[in-house]
Each structure stands twice: as C-alpha cells, then as structure tokens.
Amino acid sequence: MGPRVMHSGSTGREGRPIEGEAGDDQERFARVYDAYGQRVYAFALRLAGRKNEAEDLFSETMLRTFSAIKRGSEPEGDMFPWLCTICVNAFRDTKRKERTRRLYEEDVRSRYYPGSSWDPGAHGTSEQELGASWQQIHSLIAAMPSDQRTCLLLKLAGHSYQEICELMGVDQRQLKNSIQNAMYALRARFSHRK
C-alpha cells in the first residue's frame, strides 16, 4: 500500500519549494512527506525486503525526519539522499536490536537449557514445567519495583542504555545498577536449573 499522502486543503503544496521556506515544523514536515514520501517508502521496501518491515522502517524514518526538522537540521537542496541516510540508519538500528535480542535469547537458552537446540524435552524439562518457569519469571518481573521492571523490559526489548536513560530520566550508572540487580534476582531464583 505504501505511505498515504497528507493533504491539508488546497494549499498547492506540490508546486512550492521545500528548502528555505518559513513555516512551522508540521508544515515543513508535511511538505517533505508529500514531496519524498513515496520514494522513501520504495527505498525502505527495497532495503527491508518485506512489506510489513518496510512500513515499520518508513514510519521510523518519518519520525526521525520530523525530529530532525524540529531541530532545524534538515539540509538545503535535494532532501532525498538525507532521507535515505535516515532510513539506512533506522534499518541498521533495527537490525542491531534484533541481533542483540537474538544473542540474549541464545545466552538464556545455553545457560538454562544447555545443548545445541531449543528442545526443553531433550533436557528433562516438560513443556508444562517450561510454561511454569516462564510464569514464575513473569511473576518475578511483575513484582519488581516499577522503575526497575521498566528498565529491564526496555533492555530486553533491545533498547540501548542511552535510549533507556533518555526515556527514564536516569543516568547510565543508575540504569546499569538497576538492570544488574534485576538480573541477579532472576538468576538467584533460577540458579537451580544449571
């Protein structure tokens, strides 16, 4: 389907230049979106390879573009290369988070279910026991203090320490201590599985 073109009445935006125009951030963003949205979506689709991933990538690109416009950091002249750079960076960040999440999952599997494949039954753990373990983990996480739980879940979701610090309004030392304490609590509870 691709991005929907935004129109705000009969402003005649299509014929107006984008660069150097005065106006509020939303108007500048709307002009960029109208002029480049379809091309950036096509680029995101080629980059991601799948429609649903391309839509997510396009959305993230447009969010970052709006933030950059609010800061006044959009370039002069043709904006397409700049938008493609934003898109590529968003794609790399997504892949980096996916890789981090995958490595974390592999680490958990190797610690608690040693072996070459994720087959709980092969290690003397029934699916029922596995389900009970996950329920216990969820209960332990739910019982954590709100800030600690939020930090841990954001980290497990693949966010960087810097992103979490910005979202939570804490410094990196506090954040790392909070996540470390949460992981110690979980490990202590499940150390008998090793």
- Sheet/helix structural class: mainly alpha
**Largest β sheet strand count, sense and barrel closure:** none
Oligomer: single chain
Mean pLDDT over all positions:
75
Tell me the overall shape. Answer: elongated
pLDDT < 50 stretches? 4-22
| Beta-strand residue percentage | under 5%
List the secondary-structure elements in sequence, H or E: HHHHHHH
Radius of gyration, in angstroms, nearest whole number:
23 Å
Percent range of helical residues? 55-70%
- Secondary structure: number of strands: 0
Distance between the termini: 49 Å
Q: Provide a count of the helices.
A: 7
Folded structure, characterized:
There is one protein chain. The protein has 194 residues and is mainly α. Helix content is 69%, strand content 0%. The N and C termini lie far apart (49 Å).
Give the structure's gist in a few sentences.
This protein has 194 residues and is mostly helical. Helix content is 69%, strand content 0%.
What order do the helices and strands come in, and which of them pair?
Elements: H1 25-48, H2 51-71, H3 80-112, H4 127-143, H5 146-156, H6 161-168, H7 172-190
Features:
7 helices, mainly alpha, 194 residues, elongated, 69% helix
